């Protein structure tokens, strides 16, 4: 369940993992007293300090709690989650009007507000990011570039940064060359350029349902039509459903978030990815793969990508550093496969190049190995936060509440009782300075009006606890 | 003719201007000996140092020269230019295939090469830009932002930067509010968003002929059609021609560079701008005004913009700091008038926001008044370079060569003998590590194959002189 980095695990993490497994296997049950720190240290032949660290780590995840003058007790079993949200059946025919534009715009206006408890975000709290280290890389770039980063960068992107991005692909087994990478202004520009490269106005795009509202907006703004394919809350898009849609309609491209989809948190198993790519290759339908959350996995290994299984270059792989490192730097990339020339000329025509300074700074930061180091900490923090938020929702919300079990990413997908309209809940919550993302904006045709997305990017603290408690109370009142 | 900043002129500039006027009025003729520095200082009651500075300034512009042990002599009359390039008549019907894409891509590949004498660029040499001061503003931004510029900036752009951009509009008489500004990734993104906001695929856009090749590329890539309207080399687009085209065809928008058009260097007189805006308002045709060169004027006053005459919000004004301050920062803006909501939502959907750090750094740089100061120096330098390059072309090229007389901007538009194909000239010149922009890429239908664009953004020196001499020799050989 928990993150482990082979060959690099700290002793305390190994011990903590052992305890966590015993809780998961119901050997230690909720309420059971744990061995004292002294006993734990003797049992494992570790120092008192290491034993304490192990308990401290488990406490952070909310799995155990310390009771004053009494010791440590089991608090939560990570395998005893709430039920999963249900799979919905959207209307599988092409449609043109694809967004709840008004509701989205209304919500987005409050997104950057700083004085609210913002559960509507799907991004990390800024204090999880290595701000000081990144600033050093900016200063390094200014000092080492002969023109102090004033000149245009190559349209395709800074060569050193492209080398680093190519290296990152090792994490999912990729063998990408720097020449196959185009740097973009974040992942969204990559997705837009991919869509522009493989579609024309009036074409139909297949997406999974639910999908990120920004994807619906972009599809609408490019004059494209949309087919929503049902998706499983754990394994992602329904491949049979997709194949039927391809057989029935002319589909110009498929746009998916295979790893830790937003909002459902689903992650396609490798064999699904392989089958998907084979199917799309057979039908010659390009796949736009949005892998923006791929590095934020909680398990032992980074999930593979669809690009990994792509033999003929039909996958346009898009990602960025906006969710994992530096949102405000606006740096993403695309590996456009066989559409390289098309994407590359669109990039050059439409925005010439990305900012030189942020590209050079990130090339430096990645080049000295700080990104891998940072990601390890970020993954741990997010996993912990995911568990704490889940526990709080289970505690404060009505019993029928269903919650997703993401294995990575930033969000929980929460299904409430059918009677509750989460847009009304949002209006109500905003009176208490709390924001959520109402479910209706994540689909065009499926009825997610009693769903909501809760982002857990903010580290757990009393304010978060209080916010979720208030939200739970509001839900109970509306029930 | 020359730049003057009311109330701020240095004494030496006033004296130099007097001498320049006498040369222009043929009171002092080419070859005439000028009074000695001592006499000049006595005549004007100025110090020897100031008198020397005045001559030094005129020498920099190539108007006078010092002969060793003899004194200063008149070298060039700024009013005796070569003939202007001829106005061409493009085909005024909508067309779809609008670019010489292959030729453009071939040329662009050599654009960033550093080991060549690159007359193909329309931008300032980096050593004309205040690199060190800008770096200080970057460091200031990092230190003063609570999140060290890591967070997303507002989709509309940094509020302080928008305030500074609004202030910049004072220069052309504008009364722009910060809320009316959207920050973009350079001017090209602004133009693309403007086009996307007011057109659909298949619509027809009117442009002046010749126009910047990037504009043709963007129009083609958005699936738009094109009508080229003839333009005068001095006063810009032919308004009667435009009105006839509007009467005859359905035109979705008009896209112009009214100030120092690229490549012709033409600048629409104020009364033309006013008539244009009235005409387009009457016909309800939106005007996309690309004013990227507007601040680089050589005269006494910044030319007005079409936006200035816009009563009903039909002008989408686009500009940037890429040509005047920081190309690699990728910061531009759009004042979308009545299309605010549309442009604003496209910006948010397609690229979320621009880089935080470059926005904050430029907000600081502009806020402390460094931009105005820098612009004064830049304008002087460009005017001088424009004159030196013109003189060299007159000296080294065949007599029939016609040259534009830009009152601002970065480029000369040069017409050679009809027999000369400037694409072949470019191929030949590249063997000598010299690049030019061949005329054919600046129109779809008019035959500019014997024209070329020469950028004078690089300060005058022996290498530039040698480069133009070599180019002149190649042209003579081809004649």
From TrEMBL, chains A, B:
PROSITE patterns: HTH_GNTR. It comes from the Bacteria. GO terms for molecular function: DNA binding; DNA-binding transcription factor activity; pyridoxal phosphate binding; transaminase activity. Residues 9-77 form the HTH gntR-type domain. Coiled coil: none annotated. SMART domains: HTH_GNTR. PANTHER family: HTH-TYPE TRANSCRIPTIONAL REGULATORY PROTEIN GABR. This is DNA-binding transcriptional MocR family regulator. It comes from Pseudobacter ginsenosidimutans. The lineage of its organism: Bacteria, Pseudomonadati, Bacteroidota, Chitinophagia, Chitinophagales.
């Amino acid at each position: 369940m928990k993150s482990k980095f082979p060959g690099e695990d700290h002793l305390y993490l190994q011990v903590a993992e052992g305890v966590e497994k015993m809780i998961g296997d119901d050997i230690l049950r909720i309420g059971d007293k744990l061995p004292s720190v002294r006993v734990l240290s003797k049992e494992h032949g570790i120092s008192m300090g290491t034993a304490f660290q192990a308990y401290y780590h488990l406490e952070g995840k909310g799995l155990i709690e310390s009771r004053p003058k009494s010791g440590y007790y089991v608090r939560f079993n990570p395998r005893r989650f709430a039920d999963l949200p249900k799979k919905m059946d959207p209307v599988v025919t092409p449609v043109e009007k694809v967004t709840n534009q008004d509701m989205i715009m209304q919500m987005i206006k409050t997104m950057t507000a700083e004085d609210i408890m913002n559960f509507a975000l799907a991004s990390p709290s800024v204090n999880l990011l290595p701000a000081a280290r990144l600033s050093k890389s900016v200063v390094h770039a200014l000092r080492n570039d002969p023109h102090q980063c004033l000149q245009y960068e190559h349209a395709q992107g800074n060569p050193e940064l492209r080398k680093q991005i190519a290296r990152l692909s090792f994490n999912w087994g990729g063998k990408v060359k720097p020449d196959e990478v185009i740097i973009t202004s974040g992942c969204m520009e990559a997705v837009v350029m991919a869509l522009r490269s493989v579609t024309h106005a009036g074409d139909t795009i297949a997406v999974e349902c639910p999908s990120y509202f920004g994807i619906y907006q972009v599809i609408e703004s490019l004059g494209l039509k949309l087919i929503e394919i049902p998706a499983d809350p754990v394994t992602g898009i329904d491949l049979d459903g997709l194949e039927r849609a391809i057989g029935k309609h002319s589909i110009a491209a498929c746009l998916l978030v295979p790893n830790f989809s937003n909002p459902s948190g689903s992650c396609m198993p490798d064999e699904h990815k392989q089958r998907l790519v084979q199917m799309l290759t057979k039908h010659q339908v390009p796949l736009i793969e949005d892998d923006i959350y791929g590095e934020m996995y909680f398990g032992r290994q980074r999930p593979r990508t669809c690009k990994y299984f792509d033999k003929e270059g039909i996958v346009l792989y898009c990602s960025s550093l906006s969710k994992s490192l530096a949102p405000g730097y606006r740096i993403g990339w695309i590996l456009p496969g066989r559409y390289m020339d098309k994407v590359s000329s669109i990039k050059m025509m439409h925005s010439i190049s990305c900012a030189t300074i942020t590209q050079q700074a990130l090339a430096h930061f990645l080049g000295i190995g700080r990104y891998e180091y940072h990601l390890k900490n970020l993954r741990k923090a997010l996993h912990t936060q995911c568990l704490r938020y889940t526990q709080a929702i289970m505690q404060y919300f009505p019993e029928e509440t269903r919650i997703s079990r993401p294995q990575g990413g930033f969000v929980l997908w929460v299904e409430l009782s059918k009677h509750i309209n989460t847009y009304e809940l949002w209006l109500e919550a905003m009176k208490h300075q709390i924001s959520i993302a109402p479910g209706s904006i994540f689909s065009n045709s499926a009825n997610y009006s009693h769903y909501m997305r809760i982002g857990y990017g903010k580290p757990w603290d009393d304010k978060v606890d209080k916010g979720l408690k208030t939200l739970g109370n509001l839900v109970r009142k509306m029930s």
